[in-house]
Amino acid sequence: MRKTNAISILTYMFITLTTILNIGCSLSVLQQTPKTVIEEKPQETIFTVVDTTDIENPTLITSIRIPYPINPDNNVVIDGNHAYVTTEKHLHTIDVSTPQQPVYLKSLEFENQIGKVVVFKSLLVVGSKNELHFIDISEPSQPILHVTKHLTNRNPFNDFDVWDTFLYVLGENNTLYVFTRGDEQPKLIRTARMSDRWKFLYPKNASQMVEQVKYPLRGTSGYPHELTQGLLTDRYFLQIKNSKDVSVRSSSAFVGVAKLNTSTDRITVYNAGYYQRGDRPHHTLTRDILVNIHRDYLDYLSSQTKLTTTNRKSDGPNEREESTNLQQFIPVSSNGTINYKDKQFMGSITDFQMSGNLLYVLNTKGYLSILWLLPVEDEFFSYRPEFLSRTSLQGNHPKRLVVGENYVYLIATPE
């Protein structure tokens, strides 16, 4: 009996000791296990250069990565041999004197989130919610913060642009503020109340005053319009978004509007000119051209297919089947195909710019398209643009572009 009790006691002590050791080991292991921290991959901005010397065969030549994310208002501008890019809180300087080998030079950090940048003579203007930062680029590779300005009562603003020696800033209260270059710093010289229905603003000749064209436009095609004067004489429109978030772009011959980063695939472009009508050799006409980027690209492919099949002999019974296949699926890259029935196969429009008669368009699924716009004088009845080329941006999602001489520079986000 005593032996049995002794064995029971020893067994109990062994189990208890084993449990304590196991608990101790477990606690020891738990204490030694480091905390697992999941680090998010830093967001990047991709700066890309496209050679457009041959506008019908552009070439994607190089890209560099900027280790900061971008917001919808960030953009890129060119001044001489330097590109300036804004990201969420940084202004970046890139040497593009050799476009094939851009060199990242310097970043300037801001306390708050920033948006777009424009060139204002030897200054850059960088906007935030209610601040205008004027950056000295008299030494282009070494931008320095010169001064920060606010609107009256620190009012926030929607957008801004530069023309000649004037900076135009549209406040959220539909007030236009006009700045000019002073001896030491930019100076506010005028304020003017704008209509809440305007779509276009254009400066009158050498004056800082502006004309506004109200929205919606009516009776545009075939008739002189309040837009005609700006298109024929002043030839510059401020690239400022209106209260409905519609973006404006212009060149010396055209002005266009589109609502970016939505489901839209269309840009409306306006042009004015003189044409012969009976005994009136200088009859004026203002014309609107609806650019439907997907439809116009399909028409371009169709014309290319017809051109190819017309210039070669039929291979026999399979010829018809091959043609049908070409109409159903369009090769986009080595990665796959796109269905022609998908009206958003290139994605929505993220930005567009115009230079002379050329229209440059970015689409969210990674394409740069170039189209030719015919002026009124050349072909009175032509309302459709001529699609010249489409360039794949290798899966990146483009956001903004600027057109330089023989090159297009753009910023994008990775796939």
Features:
alpha+beta, four-stranded antiparallel beta sheet, 415 residues, globular, single chain, 28 strands, 16% helix, 4 helices, 42% strand
Structure description:
It is built from 4 helices and 28 strands. By secondary structure, the chain is an alpha+beta fold. About 15% of the residues lie in helices and about 40% in strands.
- Topology, number of strands: 28
- Give average pLDDT, whole number: 79
Strand content: 35-45%
Spatial strand arrangement across the major sheet: 2-1-28-27
Which regions have little confidence, pLDDT < 50, spanning 5+ residues? Answer: 1-7, 9-39, 308-336
**Rg calculated over all Cα atoms:** 30 Å
Class inferred from helices and paired strands: alpha+beta
Count of helical regions: 4
Main beta-sheet annotation = 4 strands, antiparallel
Helix content class: 10-25%
End-to-end distance = 79 Å
Shape call: globular
In short:
The protein has 4 helices and 28 strands. With 415 residues, the chain is an alpha+beta fold.
Helix and strand arrangement:
Blueprint: H1 2-32, E1 45-51, E2 59-66, E3 76-79, E4 82-86, E5 90-95, E6 103-109, E7 117-120, E8 123-127, E9 132-136, E10 144-149, E11 157-163, E12 166-171, E13 175-180, E14 187-193, E15 198-203, E16 210-214, H2 228-234, E17 247-250, E18 255-258, E19 266-277, E20 280-292, H3 293-310, H4 318-328, E21 329-333, E22 336-339, E23 349-355, E24 358-363, E25 367-372, E26 386-392, E27 397-403, E28 407-413
Antiparallel strand pairs: 1-2, 1-28, 3-4, 4-5, 5-6, 7-8, 8-9, 9-10, 11-12, 12-13, 13-14, 15-16, 17-18, 18-19, 19-20, 21-22, 23-24, 24-25, 25-26, 27-28
